Automatic annotation (TrEMBL):
Name this protein carries in UniProt: Phenylalanine--tRNA ligase alpha subunit
Subcellular location: Cytoplasm
Keywords: Aminoacyl-tRNA synthetase, ATP-binding, Coiled coil, Cytoplasm, Ligase, Magnesium, Metal-binding, Nucleotide-binding, Protein biosynthesis
Lineage: Bacteria, Pseudomonadati, Bacteroidota, Bacteroidia, Bacteroidales
Coiled coil: 3-30
Domain of life: Bacteria
Documented EC number(s): 6.1.1.20
NCBIfam families documented for this protein: pheS
Length: 346
């Protein structure tokens, strides 16, 4: 009878569980305290026949030991759970959330826009996927110009070689924006076209299959090359510092005549010559010129009444010069070590 009772308690003890420290204490009191179930067994133990005392005694000890172990086990589990929940300290200062920074190309593009905005230029936009008509034909590109070659430009569609509107391509310059703008606007206008452009180039430290341009166009009566030069000098000094000098070298572009490349004085050596400027004291930053009359006529603008100038620069080029970045692949690799360098810029 007593053995059965001990057996039942043993099973009960083995299945004990508790939600918290208080419940564990209740279990301890129920089984192991002076007035607990196990001590109560001792009263019955006295009445056990002498020949059974040994077996019953062992069983009671087993029960007591099991109860002790079980209670300790519950206490340990509870302590572990407590540590885990205490670990989440809601009052502790949060880890600092790192703020992103503007991409260096965006910083420089915005600065270019800001400088020309102060001189009256307004933004004009156009599609990145455009047709031959707007990217080449209206801009006076000869029919056999190499830019119209599949090897030079990313053509998406060339369904009819004789119809330029059927030739779809990734624009190779933002000048296409100017073609679109001139279709719907009459002079005078002064526009700035920033955007991404594409060229079929092998990717290297100095060339990429895509880059960014900002092009400007001003058309009005009596616009002269002098105006162009003054605007570009102002830009160079705003961008690279008030001591910056510029020089223009004759060049060729299909859409301007005359055309020029503009250099600025090397701000590393101050014009004396160093490895950065290839010992010339000058670094090239943009192309420019007077709008070719053919371009104005193609847009329905009377070239006898109106003249204009245009210029275009690579944002990567300006950024390289401003921040001395030697490899333009860095701009598109999303390396945060590199991008973090510009956190405090501007
Ligand atoms: Zn230099």
């Amino acid at each position: 009878m007593l053995l059965e009772k001990i057996e039942a308690l043993l099973q009960e003890v083995n299945n004990l569980h508790a939600q918290n420290a208080e419940e564990i204490e209740q279990l301890r009191l129920k089984y192991l305290s002076k007035k607990g179930e196990i001590n109560a067994l001792m009263a019955d133990f006295r009445n056990v026949a002498a020949d059974q005392k040994k077996a019953v005694g062992i069983k009671i000890n087993e029960l007591k030991q099991t109860a002790l172990n079980k209670i300790n086990e519950l206490r340990e589990a509870q302590a572990e759970a407590d540590v885990t929940s205490e670990d989440i300290d809601l009052t502790r200062t949060a880890y600092p959330i790192s703020l992103g920074s503007r991409h260096p190309l965006t910083l420089v593009k915005n600065q270019i826009i800001e400088i020309f905005s102060r001189m009256g230029f307004v933004l004009a936009d156009g599609p990145e996927i455009d047709d031959d008509l707007h990217v080449f034909t209206k801009l006076n590109f000869a029919a056999d110009h190499p830019a119209r070659d599949m090897q030079d430009t990313f053509f998406i569609e060339q369904s009819n070689p004789n119809d330029v509107t059927k030739n779809v391509l990734l624009r190779s310059h933002t000048s296409g924006d100017q073609s679109h703008f001139m279709e719907t606007h009459k002079p005078p206008f002064r526009i700035l076209c920033p955007g991404r452009v594409y060229r079929n180039e092998a990717i290297s430290a100095r060339a990429h299959c895509f880059f960014h341009q900002v092009e400007g166009l001003y058309v009005d009566k009596n616009v002269s090359f002098e105006d162009l030069k003054q605007v570009l000098l102002t830009f160079a000094r705003e961008m690279f510092g008030p001591e910056t000098k510029i020089r223009l070298r004759p060049s060729y572009f299909p859409f301007t005549e005359p055309s020029a490349e503009m250099d600025i004085s090397c701000d590393i050596c101050g014009g004396k010559g160093c490895s950065f400027c290839k010992h010339t004291g000058w670094v090239e930053i943009l192309g420019c010129g007077m709008v070719d009359p053919n371009v104005l006529e193609a847009a329905g603008i009377d070239s006898k009444v109106y003249t204009g100038y245009a210029f275009g620069m690579g944002v990567e080029r300006i950024t390289n010069l401003k921040y001395k970045v030697s490899d333009l692949r860095l701009f598109s690799e999303n390396d945060t070590e590199f991008l973090n360098e510009f956190e405090s810029a501007n």
